[in-house]
Automatic annotation (TrEMBL):
Protein name, entry field: STAS domain-containing protein
Organism name: Actinospica acidithermotolerans
Superkingdom: Bacteria
MF term (GO), any: anti-sigma factor antagonist activity
Xref: Pfam families: STAS
InterPro entries listed in its UniProt record: STAS_dom, STAS_dom_sf
Domain STAS: 26-125
Length: 125
């Protein structure tokens, strides 16, 4: 079986999940490419979806994130720091192999916890 990557795009989308029960993390999916051209859009969309201030911890499903660069990683790190200031956590799950390799090489895994599945990430929140 051959795995093919999608045609590159220069867009990013943050998808929200259905309302969750109190105490459960908010699960948001990130689609596209998180890089210099989309980092500001990602930050705005994440803030709109997750809310500012208090609220549940946030679990980002990166299963449909096909590219991440240092600017995108900075945006994730800034979001994690902002959540932490409000006593919330941000974690990543379902990270594609290429993006996972970038996170490992760049030290990104030290900024934000990374889990192989949504279920495993939710257990650690």
């Amino acid at each position: 079986m051959t795995v093919t990557e999608p045609i590159p795009t220069t867009s990013i989308q943050v998808r929200g999940a259905a309302a969750l029960q109190t105490g459960e993390p908010l699960v948001l999916g990130v689609d596209g490419e998180l890089e210099a051209g989309t980092a500001a859009e990602f930050s705005t969309a994440l803030a709109a979806a997750a809310g500012a201030g208090t609220g549940p911890d946030v679990l980002l499903d990166l299963g449909r994130l096909y590219h991440l660069d240092l600017t995108g990683l900075d945006a994730i790190g800034a979001a994690a720091a902002e959540f932490a200031r409000h006593g919330r956590r941000l974690v990543l799950a379902c990270v594609r192999p290429r993006v996972r390799e970038f996170l490992a090489l760049s030290g990104g895994e030290a900024l934000v916890p990374v889990f192989p599945t949504l279920e495993e990430a939710a257990l650690h929140m």
